[in-house]
Amino acid sequence: MAAEPSVAPMTLTTVVASTRPGRVGRSVADWFTTRAAECDQFESHTVDLRELALPFFDEPHPPALRQYTKSHTRKWSRIVEASDAFVFVTPEYNGGFPAR
Ligand SMILES: Cc1cc2nc3c(=O)[nH]c(=O)nc-3n(C[C@H](O)[C@H](O)[C@H](O)COP(=O)(O)O)c2cc1C
Fold first, then answer.
1. Which mutation among 26, 31, 92 tests ligand 1's pocket best, with the greatest number of atoms within 8 A of CB?
2. Which residues form the NADPH-dependent FMN reductase-like domain (predicted)?
3. Ligand 1 within 6 A of 23 CB?
4. Do the Cβ atoms of 31 and 38 come closer than 8 Å?
5. What pLDDT is recorded for position 13?
6. Which domain does 34 fall in, by range?
7. Average of pLDDT values for 23-31?
8. What is the rounded CA–CA span in Å between residue 81 and residue 39?
9. Which of 7, 46, 54, 87 has the most crowded Cβ, counting Cβ within 10 A?
10. What residue owns the CA closest to ligand 1's atom 4?
11. Is residue 84 a part of any domain in this protein?
12. Cα–Cα distance between 63 and 71 in angstroms, integer?
């Protein structure tokens, strides 16, 4: 009997959206990443916005042009480019999700 063709796993990126001291979001994201990694369909990893330390508005060009001048922006862009799916673990502050 012929073997089933293998399907490449999707890259699932779980983003820790809280950068708050004392946050619980990191442990929630790590828990989810571990659970998702148990599924053969996913290459699962966590990305922490506190570690990336993206500042506000420090690129001179609109993002749509993809003419990034800063290494942190290029790093984030590579993460986005390499991902097939995202899970955002975000807090709710004052009725909405935070900008960072
Ligand atoms: C300043 C502040 C405002 C908050 N506002 C809301 C809110 O509007 N609605 C809600 O359901 N929870 C609210 N919360 C609770 C947070 O969403 C909750 O504590 C969450 O776990 C925070 O995530 P983090 O620990 O990863 O930062 C608020 C918490 C803080 C500190």
1. 92
2. 10-99
3. yes
4. no
5. 98
6. 10-89
7. 98
8. 22
9. 46
10. 93
11. yes
12. 14
